[in-house]
Amino acid sequence: MALLELSDLEKSFGAVQVLNGVDLQVDEGEVVGLVGDNGAGKSTLMKAVTGVYPVDNGRVQFDGEDLTQIEPGTRRSKGIEMIYQDLALAPQQDVANNIFLGREPTRRLWGLFPNFVDKVKIDQEAQKMVDRLGVHVPTIHIPVGMLSGGQQQTIAIARALTFQPKLVIMDEPTAALAVREVESVLQLIRQMRDEGIAIILISHRLNDVFEVSSRIVVLRRGNVIADLQRDETDMAEVVSYIVGAHT
Ligand SMILES: Nc1ncnc2c1ncn2[C@@H]1O[C@H](COP(=O)(O)OP(=O)(O)OP(=O)(O)O)[C@@H](O)[C@H]1O
Ligand SMILES: [Mg+2]
């Protein structure tokens, strides 16, 4: 059984049909590259997986459960994480706080304040995660806004990994990065895969996709028009599907 199984997903915004019956399966520990032209529906499809966009039709199954009607917070707690294109970090907050953003551990203070944010625990756990991933930041107390694009991307990854996800969706993680930073993000993707995490990588950078994916799925006008094993295809073929030479 696949970890993620999407069947016949449809989604419209007003009169515009953006997803036209998408079927897609992703297995445990698999890295799937999701590619397609601007506006093909990649981000929309992934937001249908996280539940940010409810679908008009079709089914989202994850880990043997039907999550189609389940809200995003619950899907997240079941192991679906998405790192958005804009990263959604809080620039003025430090690295540690960003890793726990929205899910801060709390403790009871003096038996009075039940939801006291446990900053000590946040710092300890964040430091562990940064060490584990080999993230290069001067200190976890530096505001995230002062880090480079690549460092910010790794902090967003660290945040996604803090609650043991089974699937991590990454939307254009390398688009804005310098060469060396790209390499460290790709390395993190391999590391996650080796830990058994499934990854869906959305990218226009086919080099990056070919480097880490075992399968490449091409979306065009809201349809999956190709689902290819990386070892059985090449960049020219993938490009031909992206630009619609087959349709
Ligand atoms: N919230 C929304 N409201 C209305 N239309 C939307 C919304 N989100 C996306 N769309 C439309 O859906 C289509 C697919 O957009 P989507 O962002 O999924 O494409 P994409 O494949 O991620 O493109 P890109 O590679 O440029 O990020 C586009 O025509 C877009 O304008
Ligand atoms: Mg997009």
Could you characterize the architecture of this molecule?
The chain has 247 residues and is an alpha/beta fold. It folds into two domains: 1-10 and 27-43 and 53-78 and 207-216 and 223-247, no CATH class; 88-195, P-loop containing nucleotide triphosphate hydrolases (Rossmann fold, 3-Layer(aba) Sandwich), CATH 3.40.50.300. 32% of the residues lie in helices and 28% in strands. It has eight helices and twelve strands. It has helices spanning 42-50, 72-77, 95-99, 119-133, 149-161, 179-194, 206-212, 235-242, and strands at 4-13, 16-26, 31-35, 57-62, 65-66, 80-83, 106-109, 113-117, 167-171, 198-202, 215-220, 223-229. It has a six-stranded mixed sheet, with helices on both faces. The longest helix is centred in the C-terminal third of the chain and has 16 residues, at 179-194. The model has no long low-confidence stretch (mean pLDDT 93). The structure holds adenosine-5'-triphosphate and magnesium ion (MG). Magnesium ion is lined by residues 42-43, 171. Residues 13, 18, 36, 38-44 line the site of adenosine-5'-triphosphate (ATP).
